[in-house]
């Protein structure tokens, strides 16, 4: 997606060879026009697929998730990273974050996933794919189906894309960064 790549080139910073900082339009300040265009692009790429729900994880998945949900005209559900005290019946699993080198819990109230669901998972970044695999597990625990994963920025030098494909997930990435060496951003 040319617009997203332009934003990354103009406003992104490679803070080392592994991490891309996009705080000015995606992870801290959010650009609403870009978000809505990302939602439309996912809609275009998954045209013809029956999708009744968008699924992501708080926090930075939510903006992209909302844009996608608006484009598909379906609800957005986001997994929470801690169990709310008001929630008594939920699906939950542990996810290992490669970037942060620690496990975290994700949970979704049982009323928001069910066996009729045909779900598009969206996220801002794809690194090792663990977040998407954790979400897929929760969807399948509920008897639903994952139709695909829509990712804004995939780090092509990490294994997530291949791991998701090996797990039978169709992955649509809007920008694949193949290298962040020497402060330069290179796309596939
Ligand atoms: P994985 O699911 O693909 O295995 O990724 P991983 O756990 O390694 O990613 C952990 C967090 O770091 C995620 O956010 C992810 O969006 C983010 N992340 C991964 N690589 C990059 C990167 O190069 N740049 C930036 N800016 N973020 C990256 P999170 O911990 O879930 O936090 P939140 O911001 O969504 O709350
Ligand atoms: Na993030
Ligand atoms: Na994220």
From TrEMBL:
Enzyme class label: transferase
UniProt GO cellular component terms: cytoplasm
Keyword terms of this UniProt record: Cytoplasm, Glycosyltransferase, Purine salvage, Transferase
GO terms for biological process, alphabetical: purine ribonucleoside salvage; xanthine metabolic process; XMP salvage
Catalytic reaction equation(s): XMP + diphosphate = xanthine + 5-phospho-alpha-D-ribose 1-diphosphate
Protein name from the UniProt record: Xanthine phosphoribosyltransferase
Residues the record lists as binding xanthine: 20, 27, 155
Pathway info: Purine metabolism; XMP biosynthesis via salvage pathway; XMP from xanthine: step 1/1
Subunit record text: Homodimer.
Localization per Swiss-Prot or TrEMBL: Cytoplasm
């Amino acid at each position: 997606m040319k617009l997203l790549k332009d934003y990354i080139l103009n406003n992104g910073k490679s803070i080392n060879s592994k991490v891309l900082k996009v705080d000015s339009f995606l992870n801290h300040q959010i650009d609403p026009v870009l978000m809505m265009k990302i939602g439309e692009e996912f809609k275009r790429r998954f045209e013809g697929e029956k999708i009744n729900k968008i699924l992501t994880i708080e926090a930075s998945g939510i903006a992209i998730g909302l844009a996608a949900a608006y484009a598909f005209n379906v609800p957005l559900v986001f997994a929470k990273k801690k169990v709310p005290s008001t929630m008594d019946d939920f699906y939950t699993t542990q996810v290992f974050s490669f970037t942060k080198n620690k496990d975290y819990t994700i949970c979704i109230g049982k009323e928001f996933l069910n066996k009729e669901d045909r779900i598009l998972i969206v996220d801002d970044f794809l690194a090792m794919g663990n977040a998407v695999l954790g979400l897929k597990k929760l969807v399948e625990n509920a008897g639903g189906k994952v139709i695909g994963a829509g990712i804004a920025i995939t780090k092509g030098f990490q294994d997530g894309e291949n791991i998701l494909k090996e797990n039978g997930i169709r992955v649509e990435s809007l920008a694949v960064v193949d290298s962040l060496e020497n402060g330069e951003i290179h796309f596939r």
